[in-house]
Specification:
about 180 residues; alpha+beta; eight-stranded mixed β-sheet; 4 helices; 8 strands; about 25% strand; globular
């Protein structure tokens, strides 16, 4: 049996996490970097689930194989759950972590610690030819720091603090993050 899974992402940080997660089960992970002819799949949905389904369905049809797609984001309570589905392009430029983090900190400038509650959300969908899609979700709660802590991870990880661990996601090792993250769940 071929133990290869296609993950619908160009995000190097997500690809690394998925490779680590699936490696434990003996799966080889391929991403959109392995299929440059596919290009970027637009995310025009209004929810994490719609975006994940769009990506997985389009790529599954193109490759005629099972595809796992992820749509994840940061939801900040004080910002009416923004950036949400726009997390990767919150500051306008897709995938610019530094600008996204700067915008988030600017938006929360006068918000006190107790009102900086946040949630990392992940919706995964598995799509295969002739099969109904399978959806799962994962969440992790925390709050947004006033400045970045840690050099690990990607995206908002250095700003997302997990009280039970007394660390930001940016301070966690890859192994630690892959045990508790929204994507791992």
């Amino acid at each position: 049996m071929d133990k290869t899974i296609v993950i619908a992402t160009n995000n190097k940080g997500k690809a690394k996490e998925f490779k680590s997660l699936f490696n434990d089960y003996g799966y080889k992970v391929k991403t959109l970097h392995d299929f440059p002819e596919i290009g970027e799949i637009p995310e025009t949905g209004n929810t994490f689930a719609e975006n994940a389904l769009q990506k997985a369905s389009a790529i599954s049809r193109e490759l005629n194989t099972i595809v796992l797609a992820d749509d994840s984001g940061l939801e900040v309570e004080a910002l009416n759950n923004e950036p949400g589905i726009y997390s990767a392009r919150y500051a306008g430029e897709h995938g610019n972590d530094q600008k996204n983090n700067e915008k988030l900190l600017k938006e929360l400038k006068n918000v006190p610690k107790e009102e900086r509650k946040a949630n990392f959300h992940c919706t995964l969908v598995l799509v295969g030819p002739g099969r109904d899609p399978l959806f799962v979700e994962g969440n992790i709660n925390g709050f947004i720091l006033f400045s970045p802590k840690g050099e690990n991870g990607f995206g908002y990880d250095p700003l997302f603090y997990i009280p039970s661990l007394e660390k930001s996601m940016g301070e966690l090792t890859e192994a630690e993050k892959n045990k508790i993250s929204h994507r791992a769940k």
